[in-house]
Amino acid sequence: MIYKSVTLKRGKEESLQRLHPWVFSGAIAAADDTIEEGDLVTVYAHDGTLIGNGHSQIGSIAVRMLTFDDTAIDEAFFEQRLNDAYKMRLSLGLQREDNNAFRLVHGEGDFLPGLVVDVYGPTAVMQAHSPGMHFARNIIAKGLTQLPGIRNVYYKSETTLPYKAHLDPVNDYIIGGMETDEALENGLRFHVDWLKGQKTGFFVDQRENRRLLEQYSKGRKVLNMFCYTGGFSVYALRGGAELVHSVDSSAKAVRLTDDNVALNFAPEDGRHQSFAEDAFKFLDNMEKDAYDLIILDPPAFAKHKSALRNALVGYRRLNAKALEKIAPGSILFTFSCSQAVNKDQFRLAVFSAAAQTRRKVRILHQLTQPADHPINIYHPEGEYLKGLVLYVE
Ligand code: SAH
Q1: Residue 369 to residue 75: CA distance in whole angstroms
Q2: Candidate of 249, 275, 283 to mutate for ligand 1, largest count of ligand atoms within 8 Å of Cβ
Q3: In terms of pTM, does the model score above 0.85?
Q4: 200 alpha carbon – ligand 1 mean position (Å)
Q5: Each residue of 250-276: b (16+ CB within 10 Å) or e?
Q6: Is 179 in the pocket of ligand 1 (CB under 6 A)?
Q7: Model confidence over 15-54: pLDDT tens digits?
Q8: Residue 61 C-alpha to ligand 1 middle, in angstroms?
């Protein structure tokens, strides 16, 4: 199948020959002048060799590659890629009686750049990050409902599509409707608000790290900072924490956390309390030694490379505040989900924070994103979640 064509400058085919899926606008020598945002294009090397097909886009990434041959991008193509993604999740054992929340499509990590799909029981929540995926949304939704157990597809791209593309996407069900807003993660129940919540409504990427936290929670006084839907809080309670305090600057997040605690624990339990407050303020005002297990899982401090320096200062300040006041013999779970900050830079920021407090700090675990957020080996940019578990004396 031949689409509108894009021809690269000499030598600019090299990264694509190594299967990296992005064509930057500066690499293009010539392109059909009829190409519009989201069109399917065929990319050629300078000498006319066909490289593959992809979605065009206006911006620094000009084409996101979907194939590295001449395979047509049609219904059968999407069915195949979605099936492959599903098969991989099945082998990870994520669709079980006690677990039905997982990421089914992780963009480049599933060879579908520009597309994210999270599954919550019978509902798939789909986000397009590229105009091409927006235009393909109906066949993708159809392909999703052909997978076992998925009956509803909610499309949520109002905030993920480039606004300059003027696509005016509407958040709504493409197939089905509201069946249940409850999802199961490792036997714990969560309300997921894909209609109004952040991203697809829940952060499935912390599933394994929450489970690890559970194992450290027994008898501890836990502070879950940046709690959002209270994922870490609920695991800490199940793990036998003495008390759990959840903090988020958003009153709505605090309500979601309270609801999820109530969904899993009896009203008379009484170990949990939540606070709608700014993290930095809360840490400034908290008493020394009040907690012996702290989780810091802030939003991405650097959304772009340009914000890197400020982000690193932010991570250092945040971690220093926690390290100054955490009780001796404590555990600190600290994360960064900024893609622009790499593992070493994050570790250096935490190191600087530790050095500032001069406490004895050891690294127990180095955490990352779970297997349902795979990293395409040819696209290292897909690695974004980093975490450290520290033992602080
Ligand atoms: N730990 C969560 C995800 C955190 S998302 C989970 O496991 O699901 C980041 C959260 O930080 C959001 O809920 C956001 O409301 C909150 N947040 C952002 N800035 C904040 C601040 N300055 N103080 C406290 N919370 C903040």
Answers
A1: 30
A2: 249
A3: yes
A4: 15
A5: eeebbebbbebbeebeeeeeebbebbe
A6: no
A7: 999 999 999 999 999 999 999 999 999 999 999 999 999 9
A8: 29
